[in-house]
Design a protein that fits this description.
Elements (H helix, E strand, L loop, with lengths): L1 H18 L7 E4 L5 E8 L2 E9 L29 E9 L4 E9 L4 E9 L5 E8 L2 E13 L3
Length: 149
């Protein structure tokens, strides 16, 4: 009985580890607040994500929210719909995470270095933005897998 339990646990571990492959980050994700959806795609071996949907409550006068906090004043009038907020992530098979990326926070107008990982299920993506190369000096967020519809 003990051997069966050990085999089952080991099998579950292998299943989770194999699910976290290079492309498992691709797809459509709800942000943590569930106010927008971000589509993550692979492009030239790197992963990027752009905002593809906002809940209707976020629209003002029939328009999607604007990038009002952008440090570049000329971009503050653009719609956040279609803005690339995640770029440059590459998969590290040894660490089973995507790293060396950048994430843009439209709420603050700031960009941060970031990395992403799964903690078991590939339906929850964890991202951490950090500053000055210090990973523990940052903020984590959790995205939930969804569909575009």
């Amino acid at each position: 009985m003990k051997k069966l339990v050990v085999l089952l646990v080991f099998g579950l571990y292998l299943n989770i580890a194999s699910a976290q492959t290079r492309g498992s980050i691709t797809g459509v994700w709800w942000n943590e607040e569930k106010t927008s959806k971000i589509e993550v795609v692979e492009q030239d071996g790197k992963y990027m994500g752009k905002i593809v949907y906002f809940i209707p409550e976020k629209f003002e006068n029939g328009e999607a929210p604007k990038d009002t906090k952008n440090p570049d004043e000329s971009l503050r009038g653009r719609s956040l719909l279609g803005v690339q907020i995640l770029h440059g992530l590459s998969f590290d098979a040894d660490d089973r995470q995507w790293q060396d990326g950048q994430i843009y926070d439209p709420k603050s107008g700031k960009s941060y270095d970031c990395y992403a990982w799964f903690d078991g299920s590939t339906d929850k993506l964890y991202l951490k933005g950090y500053v000055v190369g210090i990973k523990w000096l940052g903020k984590s967020t959790e995205w939930t897998r969804t569909s575009l519809n």
